[in-house]
Write a structure and sequence with these properties.
Elements: H1 8-26, E1 31-32, E2 38-43, E3 46-52, E4 58-61, E5 65-66, E6 69-74, E7 85-89, E8 96-97, E9 110-112, E10 119-120, E11 142-143, E12 155-158, E13 164-165, E14 178-181, E15 187-188, E16 210-211, E17 224-226, E18 233-234, E19 247-249, E20 256-257, E21 268-270, E22 279-281, E23 287-290, H2 295-302, E24 307-309
Parallel strand pairs: 3-6, 4-7, 6-8, 7-9, 8-10, 10-11, 12-14, 13-15, 15-16, 16-18, 17-19, 18-20, 19-23, 23-24
Antiparallel strand pairs: 1-2, 2-3, 5-6, 21-22
Length: 312
């Protein structure tokens, strides 16, 4: 009987299955460390902390090593709703903070992040009402949606490596008044600064190409905005209900402007349409600076917004 040859394709599949088996085999269930204080899972050659055996309180310093393994991550929901937590120090070597890791720690006032950090998960610090300051390391490459939503942050610097500002990243940060968006950031996501009423100004870098829907909706403190050459689209309601907005410069590069991206004087919103409040007023004295024949001029005419042409 003729023996079948072992085809390369079959060999590749077997190797893949073997690799998957080894990965699963190396993944461990959550357990407590030898000291009995922390819970963790071993992932590869590093440890992801999943929480504390007992409810933490006060200032908490996370360990850099547990049971002979380096700590490389803080897991999803690890310290979510730890209401007695007031401060956290994350050690060097940690690369990731998982989704909702410190969510709703309403008494958290201080956190130190390591330079080794590269990613911050979705809703990682949501509703940390008393967290007023955080230094995001320059090496962070990913910050997911809503990471700082509803925090008490007063200022923030978005590092260049994140690519784009995620949806709802700073939404409902009512005390946020100063933001630095680094050159290299390419987009501002939907509702990124939604209802940041204290935001007094925003400088959009030339690397940004798109501004999402509701990105600056109801930022009442904004007075003027210069949209840089390079932005091609502005989403619907992006700057709507910004009651103090008096001037916006729209460059020739913009080819798409969504519905009610800017409000005509006297514009109002009905509660059921957008917001929970009965009335939300639009911009009262807005004048657009546009390029003749461009999308900005067309939008101004269609929406009865006063405009002037940019000086050539």
């Amino acid at each position: 009987m003729r023996r079948k040859r072992w085809k390369p394709k079959m060999a590749g599949m077997l190797l893949l299955l073997l690799a998957l088996f080894l990965v699963v085999g190396n993944a461990e269930e959550e357990k407590a460390d030898a000291g009995g204080r922390w819970t963790y899972v071993l992932e590869g050659s590093g440890i992801t902390i999943t929480g504390c055996v007992d409810e933490p309180y006060g200032d908490l310093a996370l360990p850099g090593e547990l049971d002979g393994y380096p700590v490389t991550g803080v897991g999803p929901g690890a310290f979510e709703m730890c209401l007695e937590l007031t401060g956290v120090s994350v050690p060097e070597g940690v690369k990731s903070i998982g989704p909702a890791a410190f969510g709703y720690c309403e008494n958290l006032t201080r956190i130190i992040l390591p330079e080794s950090l590269t990613s911050i998960g979705e809703s990682a610090f949501y509703s940390c009402y008393n967290l007023t300051d955080i230094a995001i390391p320059a090496g962070v490459e990913s910050i997911s949606a809503g990471a700082f939503m509803g925090t008490g942050l007063t200022s923030a610097v978005v590092p260049p490596g994140v690519g784009g500002i995620a949806d709802e990243l700073f939404s409902h940060c009512s005390r946020l008044f100063h933001v630095v968006i680094s050159e290299g950031v390419t987009s501002i996501g939907d509702s990124a600064f939604y209802r940041c009423g204290g935001l007094a100004g925003i400088s959009v870098p030339g690397s940004v190409t798109s501004i999402g829907e509701f990105a600056f909706f109801r930022c009442a403190g904004l007075e003027s905005v210069v949209i840089p050459e390079g932005v091609t689209c502005i989403g619907s309601h992006a700057f709507a209900a910004c009651a103090g907005l008096s001037g916006v410069t729209i460059p020739a590069s913009v080819t798409s402007i969504g519905d009610r991206a800017f409000d005509a004087p006297g514009a109002v919103y009905i509660a059921d349409e957008i917001d929970e409040e009965e009335w939300v007023y639009g911009s009262g004295s807005l004048i657009l600076t546009v390029t003749e024949g461009g999308a900005g001029e067309w939008f101004a005419k269609e929406n009865h917004i006063p405009y002037v042409f940019a000086v050539k």
